[in-house]
Amino acid sequence: MHKKKLITAGIAVLIIALIIGGLAVALRSSTTASEMTAEEAESFVNSRLDAIAATQTTQYIAEKNRITVEEISYGDEKDILLDCTVQTLDLHGAVAPYYDTFLSADERKETGMYKSKLHFKMEFEPLLMELAETAAEKEVSCRISLFDTHEGLVLYASDEVVNAVFGGLIDIKNEILPRTSAVLTKADGTEEIREFESDNIKLGFLDCLQVPQNAKPDTATALVRFWNDLKQDFHRNFIEANRWLTIVKGLWTTIRLTVFALLLGIVIGFLVAFVRATYLKQSKHGFLLRLVNSICQVYLTVIRGTPVVVQIMIIYFVIFMPLGIDKFLAAVVCFGLNSGAYVAEIVRGGIMSIDNGQTEAGRSLGFNYMQTMFYIVLPQAFKTVLPALANEFVVLLKETSIAFYIGLGDLMYSINAIRAATYTAFMPLIASAIIYLVMVLILQHLVTLLERRLRSSER
User: Fold this and answer.
1) Coil, strand or helix: which one is 383?
2) Containing domain of residue 98, as a range?
3) How far apart are CA 215 and CA 210, in angstroms?
């Protein structure tokens, strides 16, 4: 026996060690990139820089560039560091004297509307191309980083690299963006300061250059990238712009809706169940009892025979909205009526399960019919149907999620608002599922406590 325990413990330790080792391997990322020669690095860098040149002007400069790799080193982020010498064109020196020429262009069309960025691009690009063709050559040094990622080798075009390779492109951008005015030279040779009425001129001018931008590549393992993506999605969906407050507000609406609908459903359900049970238990029926029973039967048939989403839309759009009644009240009435029909049948079944001898015993004690039902039959029936009632309450809580069909700001309405704002579905929907699951578990726990209390009272 002792030997078996030792073997079991050893197997458990081995399994735990394998799991920990597997996680360590999955989380560990090699810090060294694959080695490459200077010729391979030069070929790769030139091809990638040609690919990110998006406009006629930058493509022209990329064709004239000559990049020489002087030294290769390897960083600790799976990166290859290339110390390079770049023979390029001094685009900044050629364009800077003409800033006012570009930025003093007429900002309005004949119709009085602002020109678009595309309109300015069509005007500026030919002149920029002429200036690029006259730009002087210059030699600069820079460090270009290549990252060995899961998608292969990736070039990181930082501002320093872009500025060096494309002849001062970043310098032009940094000098243009803060400008608030330009000097306009009129036909008679006089000058006039023109204040910008919008950013269209500057943005249209910069669009002619199309400054390349990209984020630093991710060299992490698949598991780490998945975890980082989860953190990013969580921040974007809940932390950013305090979107979690939207969920809290929607959750509070859902809780209030469920509580009020539950109370209404219990009242309606017990009343209908009492009428139906009385009709079935008694052999003689008066006209009033037959009429009320018929109304209850129609109510049960209609409510249980139609989808709740159709009911809430009819109650609000057809009945309540023309009267100017609030969406929340319409939802409470709809879910209360729907729940009441199911509660009625559950309670009626519980009442009918009580032996008739209990009713006769109550009558022999001098109780009338109402007293017998209240003090003897209903307490016993309630203990019998409590699990079924608890299930109905859980169903009611989940059914309130369709209240957003009428525009009520409940939990699902808030979740859909976040989805529309962030264009993501996974994180908001998973969050809603978890919230509903937690509420259901809490409700089930409360019912369990109630059942335990009822069992203790029997002793």
Assistant:
1) helix
2) 38-219
3) 16
